[in-house]
Amino acid sequence: MSIKALRQKRADLVREGQGIFDAASAENRGLTETEAARDDAIAAELTDLDAQITRAERQMDRQRSIGAGSDANEGADANDRGGRSDGRRFSSLGEQLRAVVLASAPGASVIDPRLQAIGSVSAGPTGMSEGVSSEGGFLVQTDFSNELLQHTFEAGEIASRIRKIPIGPNSNGLKINGVDETSRANGSRWGGIRSFWTGEAGLKNASMPKFKRIGMELDKLTGLCYATDELLQDTTALSSWIGQAFQDEFIFKIEDAVVNGTGAGMPLGFLNGGATITVPKVAGQAAATLNAQNIFDMYSRMPARSRKNAVWLVNQDTEPQLLGLYVPIKNVAGTENVGGFAAPVVTYTPPGFNGNEYGMLMGRPVIPVEYCATLGTPGDIVFADLSQYLAIDKGPTQSAASIHVRFIYDETVFRFVYRFNGQPIWQAPMTPYRGVKTQSPFVVLAART
């Protein structure tokens, strides 16, 4: 078995094992007897695979020592990881991508044995398919892939707040049962669970829940980054530049899809989901304005249990309106006081006040994002509990390189492929136990034109 296949098998087993513990943790229980037995089997297989990988890497070290040249930035890359250079793995993403470029160059006869090809690897460059080494069809080293994705989801204001589930090996999607609850009325909570006050020796009444099936299949997000020949000569700078470019672009595409996605070949954004509530404007409200009543109406439609997670997402065009918001307190005579304890109460607190990173509205953060619509149109201000958005993904991220696309400009293009999908968990607004207005974790304001 090739070292690529060994490493892939090891990664699949690690993900499978993590899935076992994640399932048990989600249900707040220990491992079942069957799960424990499978975990023991995985541990035994990993021990055997590690031994095989060690032997294969040892042979690679022997081959590499025959005549491979050292990189000018090898010392810097080693310092970046604390000087721990074992020669078996790339020390940085930049070092690996530079190896991909060298393997892709016309006439290249030596391919760094540390590269993991997507498809079969020939002895040298022979064709134009991404599946062979001549076109740089190589997997990003797993730790680099995980780091890129981790930074993407940590840095994104929206991506960091959604609920994400990794998809295990031999699977292209997710199907799970969710509670079919669209009303909090008696007999509807938890899809049909009901309890009764029962007297001594009284008859117990039966009830049962109702479930819905949530299903998604992975879609593919691809990104392109161009690097000059000068940048390619410095692996440390290349690693930093490529990482930042990848992170910024994937954050943008993922977060825009979470908000505005159509669900056709891409995630379903919550603005296009069936659960989103559109709150009407105030009678007589001027075009392209926001007022305190809009905020109160939106806040009242957010379920109480979601308010602790909810954030306001706004287009920056709304900020002048937000800065002017306040709610005057009326005195007994019905006129506005301007001093003392009855002074106007500010509903919007600008960023920096009391050390807050974000502005605050009704006690919840106000986050300006590019994905919201302009002032006066639906989606210019959104009140959302993003933990009620479910996403799935599958790694590792794949990369490929080509020197041909921008050859006359002395540039190389790197392509990254990431498999991801998502949709709102709620499929319809909720009818409250008492009251007539529905509630949802996704609330927007109607057009003001």
From TrEMBL:
SUPFAM superfamilies: Major capsid protein gp5. InterPro entries: Phage_capsid, Phage_capsid-like_C. Signal peptide: none annotated. Residues 57-89 are annotated as: Disordered. Residues 78-89 have a biased composition (Basic and acidic residues). Residues 136-429 form the Phage capsid-like C-terminal domain. It holds the Pfam family Phage_capsid. It is found in: Virion. NCBIfam families: major_cap_HK97. This is Phage capsid-like C-terminal domain-containing protein. It comes from Hansschlegelia plantiphila.
